């Protein structure tokens, strides 16, 4: 290990439908970030098919690792540790990445570090903003997760709130399918919503009683479906753009509402956004405005670092490595792994 060159981590991400590998130095410098996306393949089925995703990961995993090393101008002999997503996610997809990482770690005699997928999304902000350090609040919004987290330190998290049912991205996908936009729903709803009126339809904004900052999107999704059914029964025209814009605004209102309350009640002066839905420019603008009028620093990764990628896993792996975290060769995929568990 050459300390002068920094800690070089090869990272692997296969939690869903992206086969990704990256080389990251000292948690902040990305030497390569290779992603093979399966979106076109799963679009044929209207969503991710787990068995197909797993088979495609097997087909592409060695290819993306080779390309990542080549772009970084390194070989496996130059790598100091290997990080891999081991949960949460699709169990078959996770197993492909975990098995590959364990094989490389064993063959090269380098440390293996299992990384939580949500921790990876949070850590994408360290790549985008080199000066960002904990503590800060972070909202992670993706197809499988909606979490509001207090990042206390590297690797130390307090979950303030989470979705009680559908994740925001999952709701986007289901609504997009219902109004005939197809998969993936998030980008398509955002695109169509630009031509619609966000106040055209009064969809509900759910709030969860009790302590915490929890979310609920299932009722909102059901309200959209009920609206569509009602229009069809009454033979009233459905304006796709207005449905998309009104639904999107309802989701954003729920997200920003909890963020505002958390910022005011905690007094934290740094806020970060993460996850695939963080690519939504309307959401980014809304949260930037929330932070701007409260003198809170706002951080958000570029869209390429919001969606699933291996660079974010390399960033998270570095801080785990620095803290002395190591995984054994008994590391296994944990599809329902909770943030903070190990």
Layout of SSEs?
Layout (H helix, E strand, L loop, with lengths): L7 E6 L4 E8 L3 E9 L1 H5 L6 H22 L9 E7 L3 H18 L3 E5 H12 L7 E6 L4 E8 L2 E7 L5 H11 L6 H9 L24 H16 L6 H27 L3 E5 L6 H12 L4 E3 L3 H4 L4 H12 L20
Parallel strand pairs: 1-4, 4-5, 6-9, 9-10
Antiparallel strand pairs: 1-2, 2-3, 6-7, 7-8
Helix pairs in contact: 2-3, 4-11, 5-6, 5-7, 5-8, 6-8, 8-9
Task: Describe the protein's architecture and organization.
The chain is α/β, with parallel strands linked by helices and 342 residues long. It has two domains: 3-123 and 306-322, Nucleotidyltransferase, domain 5 (2-Layer Sandwich), CATH 3.30.420; 133-303, ATPase, nucleotide binding domain (Nucleotidyltransferase, domain 5). The protein contains eleven helices and ten strands. It has helices at 39-43, 50-71, 91-108, 117-128, 168-178, 185-193, 218-233, 240-266, 281-292, 303-306, 311-322; strands spanning 8-13, 18-25, 29-37, 81-87, 112-116, 136-141, 146-153, 156-162, 270-274, 297-299. It has a five-stranded mixed sheet with strand order 3-2-1-4-5, sandwiched between helices. The radius of gyration is 20 Å and the shape is globular. The relative contact order is 0.19.
